[in-house]
Amino acid sequence: MGAFFLRIETELVLKSRNEVPRKLLDAGFTLNFSNAKDAIVALT
User: Fold this and answer.
1) Share of the chain above pLDDT 70, in %
2) Domain containing 28: what range?
3) How many domains is the chain built from?
4) Which of 13, 23, 24, 33 makes the best surface tag, with the fewest CB within 10 Å?
5) 10: in domain
């Protein structure tokens, strides 16, 4: 349903991506978590 609202193909939502925020990292931004699971666990 989220893909409908974002107007993107459902295939793009379901496929796993290993993306690196290169521009943020090059600008000096540091990530506190290396993956989404750890970030979500930290929220609880």
Assistant:
1) 59
2) 17-44
3) 1
4) 23
5) no
- Asked if the structure places residue 11 within a domain, the reply is no
Contact between residue 16 and residue 9 where contact means Cβ atoms under 8 Å apart: no
Q: Which amino acid is at 12?
A: L
- Can you give the pLDDT at residue 9? 60
pTM for this one?
A: 0.42
- CA 33 vs. chain centroid, Å, equals 11
Alpha-carbon span 25 to 5, nearest angstrom: 29
DSSP string across 10-30: HHHHHS------HHHHHTT--
> Is the CB of residue 23 less than 8 Å from the CB of residue 31?
no
